[in-house]
Amino acid sequence: MKVFSTILFLFIFHISFVNTIEWQELNAATFTRAKAENKIILLNLKANWCHWCHVMKNNTYTNQEVVTYINKHFITVEADQDANPELSNRYKDYGWPATIFINAKGEDVVKRAGYMAPENFLRLLKAIIKDPSPEQTSVDLTTINNTKNTNNNLVATLENNFIKSLDIEVGGFNQAQKYIEYATFEKALLDRKNLTLNTWIKNSVKGAKKLSDPVWGGMYQYSTHNDWEHVHFEKLLSIQARYINIFLQHYTYYNDENSLKQAKNIVHYIDTFLANKNGLYSNAQDADLIQGRHAGAYFALNNTERRKLGIPNIDKNTFTDNNATIGSALLRMYNGTQNKKYLNKVKTIENGLYQRKNRNGLYTHGSKQSTVSSLKDQIAMAHFFINLIKNDINNTKAKQELKALCLQLKNKFLLQNGSFISFTGNNGLTTQPLKEENISLARIFNWYGHYTHNKEYINIAKHTYKFLTADVLAKNYYSEASLLLLQKELATEPNQYVYLNTEKGNHFNYYLQSITPFYSLVYVGKLNELPTEKQNLIKSFKENVLFSCTSNYCSTPIYSEEELKKEFYKNN
């Protein structure tokens, strides 16, 4: 008995003194400490739903040799990438997990993507201590000033690279990971008269349907092995929003009833697993039932068998960017189905997100206040407001909020070189412009300038485009689709669709909302609610009628969905 007690004591003593890593949050104090101690910061940027993040936590960050070396030589910081969009957008090319080594000056020393086994990780750690100089020379994009005229060959080069990036036969990108990126789908849809792109749309949507969970609904994030059969099982709210939009547009443009069914299945999934009592939606569902163990066998089971074993963890955070995005998707769902239950969900999300507005006029990322405001959240909210305004000409609250937000973005994020920084606030890092965020915001500002007849916002968008086409940026795009969309929008005025709702005749305003692209001005209302300059044109009509207009042209009267299709396809 005495021997047993001694062994038990030694075991407990050993366990209590096992080395662990004490993770901190990233803030300005982290860099002060790094400078004082002459150490490198190790940032472990993870996701709650990520299989390989769990594996690295269980295998690598518990290895005693690794832990001892890290604790001696590094300052350790851990962050949830979903909760920190200013970090996730900055390092998204390296995740998840993303392992980022940063020096006291805020310079990235080494960046690595994905899981690293203990022995490989230890080798890397020692190499960094031996030579802590940055692997790559970073470019300060805040100092980039593009003084050149736009290269006439640039658009042709981007178009060529865009086509090369696509896997026409299988769908998705020409790479091992298979999924559909929204801007790429958006551009292909607008250029669908190109038979190659039309084929790509068909094969991509067909493939993407294989990412759908056949039991619970909802979309898995992507597939590997250069096909659509090897799925990764995490389900992110942002991914659900993306595919609701894609499937509904495919239904609208190609009359594919199965795509509508897929969109409805996604909504059923988020309502079943991600809905909260306050009407907002949770962030994601884990890829693993038991964290760190591959769950392929689990997801092959039926509903009853799955629930007997349990349900993968739900990240219950209700982030602003993702809820604004799902709000826009549900608004498209309402117009695609004319079912008011979707509109009611949108109104609840809208009211919930209004509560996220800070005293500084910006929107917080989560339910708690933060010292950092991310551009990603503001972009998602601006898109949401635009969709709300298009859908309801009398939504004065959304109009006011969009006006106020655009002003704040101009005042707090815009630099002299035409770029927008990715966040405001102090987390120790020097804030930089990020390409995709700048493209998105330039598209918003250009649309808003035309909507309000305020040329200042159009000129800002043009200045941002000039920044984006600087040599150091233009040649490094993963996908050129969004930049090409911006270029085309800046070169033309948006089409205006003015629909007089007399409540008599054909009701095709829902179809109008469904088929018009982002870069369009949509006005649906009674005579006195429509733009003043168009009222004389339509005041004599006694039934529902639509005009498709530019600044110097209006179509003949359109009275039905079929006539709208003909007019739309002629112009697009």
From TrEMBL:
Instruction: Write down a Pfam family by its short name.
Output: Thioredox_DsbH
Superkingdom of the source?
Answer: Bacteria
Q: Which Gene3D superfamilies match?
A: 1.50.10.20, Glutaredoxin
Which positions, given as ranges, span the membrane? none
Q: What SUPFAM superfamilies would the database entry show? A: Six-hairpin glycosidases, Thioredoxin-like
**Where is each Spermatogenesis-associated protein 20-like TRX domain found?**
19-120
> InterPro entries recorded for this chain?
6-hairpin_glycosidase_sf, Ssp411, Ssp411-like_TRX, Thioredoxin-like_sf
Protein name, please?
Spermatogenesis-associated protein 20-like TRX domain-containing protein
Which organism is this protein's natural source? Wenyingzhuangia heitensis
